[in-house]
Amino acid sequence: MWRFRHCAIWSRGGRISRTLVSLGALLHVKLVLEVRDSQVLPVERMRTWQRVPTQSLELMQARGAYQKSSIVHTINRAEVELLADACAAAGLLAHDRIRTVQIGAVPGTHMGPGAPGITGLLNA
Predict the structure, then answer these.
(1) Any idea what the CATH number is for the domain that residue 18 is in?
(2) Domain that holds residue 6
(3) Alpha carbon distance 15, 94 (integer Å)
(4) Is the separation of the CB atoms in 94 and 105 below 8 Å?
(5) How confident is the model over 72-97, as pLDDT tens digits?
């Protein structure tokens, strides 16, 4: 699951129309996207950033049990640590099995600034 503070970065790559980006910027819409089977799928659109971490955890729990998980970020390590604590408190995985990773320039360019994501490997 990837959470995006700004929709404009997705317009540049042609993933979202400029009309939707303008409307999203006006309404302060945050996107939650999922990558499954090499496809980028929209999961949800939210208006308040405070609701995004809770909703992301609920979506992860609905997918099933995980072997391992990582929380990735571009520049916001403090927020990612809080998200890792929330994942452990929700019983997603033990805190020592959740990695926090700063991603590189290529994915960061596509995600935009301040976009954390939760990745996980589901149990077979």
Answers:
(1) 3.30.1180.10
(2) 2-122
(3) 35
(4) no
(5) 888 778 888 888 888 888 888 888 88
